[in-house]
Specification:
alpha+beta, Thiol Ester Dehydrase, Chain A
Length: 165
């Protein structure tokens, strides 16, 4: 069972990632952001947020990676060409080899929530291409972020169908 979504003001308190206007090239025949780009932009925002937790874009060159395991996507309001959007990330938890996060795609132009991507992602050892325990520094940073986000004054709008195992 899903919970109510946070307000624009609640989400605006989180850092903005992947902030950009909707480009003309991303528009579909319906005159709004094509469905495939919602997930791509949300994923970019999640990736940007992980850099400060010790997971840089160059991580695979160091023998590590994050792979997506599961997603739940919710479309709430269309984004149109020129609307400014940003991704706001809430990290919900982590296990030995996985993490659970929400990425909210915010329509800053109209001050509303447009899309929610709930994701479980895995730490991968690139030598074996299998899951592996998080490196200690990343695990500690994820734990700090989970604790920080647990203090937010709103209940996370989880789908109820994803979680850590």
């Amino acid at each position: 069972m899903s919970t109510p979504h946070p307000s624009f003001d609640q989400l605006a308190a989180l850092p903005a990632y992947a902030r950009q206007p909707v480009p003309v090239a991303f528009e579909d025949v319906n005159g709004h952001l094509n469905v495939r780009h919602y997930t791509g932009i949300a994923s970019e925002g999640l990736d940007e947020s992980l850099v400060e937790l010790g997971i840089p874009q160059s991580w695979p060159a160091r023998g590590h990676a994050c792979f997506s395991a599961e997603h739940h996507l919710t479309y709430l309001a269309e984004l149109r060409t020129g609307d400014v959007m940003s991704a706001r990330v809430r990290v919900l938890g982590r296990s030995e080899r996985a993490a659970h996060a929400l990425v909210h795609l915010v329509d800053e132009t109209h001050e509303r929530l447009s899309y929610v991507m709930e994701e479980v992602f895995l730490h991968i050892d690139m030598a074996t291409r299998r899951t592996a325990p998080w490196p200690e520094d990343v695990a500690s940073a994820l734990d700090r972020r989970v604790a920080e986000h647990a203090e937010l004054p709103w209940v996370p709008d989880v789908s109820g169908c994803l979680g850590l195992r």
